[in-house]
Fold this protein.
Amino acid sequence: MGEPFIHLAGVQKTYRTQGAPLLAISEATFDVETGELVSLVGPSGCGKTTLLKILAGLHPIDSGTVKIGSATQPFDPSRDIGMVFQQPLLLKWRRVIDNVLLPAEILGLPMAQSRARARDLLALVGLKGKEAMYPYELSGGMQQRAAIARALIHDPKLILMDEPFGALDALTREKMNLELLRIWQEAKKTIVFVTHGITEAVFLGTRVIVLTAGPARMADNFRVELAHPRTLEMKTGEAFGEYTRRIYRLLGME
Amino acid sequence: MGPRFRGDERMELPQLAPTTRLPYDAREVVDLREATLAGHPQALERYALAVLSHIGLVAAWYLFVKLGEVPKFVMPSPYETVHALLVPNYRWPENIAVTTVEIFAGYILAVVFGIGAALLFSWFRWLEMAVMPLLVSLNMIPKVALGPLIIVWFKYGVGPNAMMAFAICFFPIVLTTARGLREVEPDLLDLVHTLRGSRWQLFTKIQLPGALPYVFSGMKVAAILAVAGAIVGEFLGSDRGLGYLMLQVQVTLDTAAMFMAVILITLIGVVLYALVLALERALVPRDARLA
């Protein structure tokens, strides 16, 4: 492998709130290759979201380096980031397709082409025929699918997902995990996926980065050598169990 | 024996009657949910019921006056009330027009200035920080108390009465609109920021449409207040309008005309409110509306 797509070295971030400064990230160093799906897993308050926002260019850092893009994969921060949050955050007054088109409108992309692309993306995320509906007519899982289509509309190179399935029920969540893997393989994007679900992190990730809280630090970073396409049966396998146990141990739960 | 404390005494529990166990038959169990839904009227029935209750009120009014032999100057019958419309001296069309103009003019001004002020607040935070607390204080003034002052400053007539309606409508509109413009999901802000969206885009695509339900919530409250404002204005000083007419016929004890005037004032308010509702329906999808 040549240059990594994302390169983080010695990233430190402190929040200066009223009173004592809060150390959100003490030291984060990792690389992400092009096309990887990296899970960032850890307990609440371990700085996962902060790390994601640093990658999104929303938070400045105190020290260290953050480099995204390479000679072969040039990266334009305004065009190449797609965001998915825990809540779908669809605009209630827009139809599904117009919600998907929001980033295209903001970036001023040609609308006719974007509209065609939005239709394709809605089909990709399994919302064919729901283009003209309003968000309230969709279930929570469907809304999150629309949010994923919205994150893909401007064809970004990097998708940042912040616990996107955290608000869904357990079965819908499993289904969305499979869907995300399918979308990832079809759309060929680099994805950084923040979660506090250990099983989810292993099941989705080509690589898992474990963060521990108080003080926030990186505890582990390993490749998940499970074949693709992944199936739900893998979750009951020995190899899968090894990975999850490894994380449980680090988080002091075993 | 030592002192006794609360709790020393054993509580005497009442003996419960033994329950009678009946043989259980699932077929006899009533589905409570179904039973409730069965008693739940459908849309058409609901309209019919609403219309019926209004007719019922008029009928009760009629019966009360007739059976109670209430004198006409205390409470006229529905028929006598409508009959008051035939008195040409009361110049109903002109008075209706005057009051309608006062209400609508004051209301529309309040909508324009209220929304305008809220927009300025959202664009210039320092302005909001300076002016908003002032508005909250001014809102505490009973606007009706300004009536005599308005007469001193602007004499009396259609303009000052519209001003009264404006004064009473302005605050709910500016306060709710400003609140709506402030309520933007932080994650949506992040989304726009990652795309390097401009402030104008944030405003037109997210802030403003997101604030519309709040704007309408304020406009609905204001629609009711506008009517009260204009009528109080007419009571305090005017030479035309339904409020003025009420003061005139009060002297002659024509209670029927007073009733008719109140009904007409109410109807003007209903029309204004219905227009605002229709506008809301056209602009805000169902789920985005505030209750």
In short: The helical segments of chain A are 48-55, 96-100, 102-107, 111-124, 140-152, 170-187, 198-204, 238-250. The two ends of chain A are 35 Å apart (CA to CA). The interface with chain B takes residues 53, 56-58, 77-78, 81, 83, 85, 87, 89, 91-93, 102-103, 105-107, 134-136, 154 of chain A (CB under 8 Å).
